[in-house]
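Reviewer 2 asked us to include a model.

Predict the structure of this chain.
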Amino acid sequence: MKSPFVETMCAALVCLGLSEAVHAIDYSFTNIVGKTSGAFTVPGLGGFNNAGTVVFDGRLHGVPGIFTGSGGPVTTVYETNGSFSSFFAATINDSGSVAFNASLDAGGEGIFTGNGGLVTTIADTGDGLSFFSAPSINNSGTVAFSAFDSAGGAIFYR
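Predicted model (structure tokens):
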């Protein structure tokens, strides 16, 4: 009778003998924002789109905001000098629309979209929802997220 250990080791050796050689892949990094940017602190990656635009939340000169970049100058999408007190979990689609979770100066939180101009409210605590998750936005502008309502946790889209 063979032990399970011996059988496992034999199978692993056979697999190793059949595997192909590992080859390094050439790639390069693009610095979006980092220590060399000086003015930014606490950047948190949100996502990126097919054009290579990265969206992230962080602080610019101490002011929380949502920003985008693709290796050149960074663009401020929204800052807390409006009706928002903080930002979480931003994502971006191919047309540059950003979906994000934010806390409001007036209290509560919600899921919002925009591209630096007018903000569209997708859902907020005024809708009877709470504990919003990170949103996801598709190229049609539809936003999906999870939150809690009176029946418990659920996934929504709009």
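The domain at 27-157 is CATH 2.120.10.30 (Neuraminidase). The mean pLDDT is 86. We have added this to the supplementary material.
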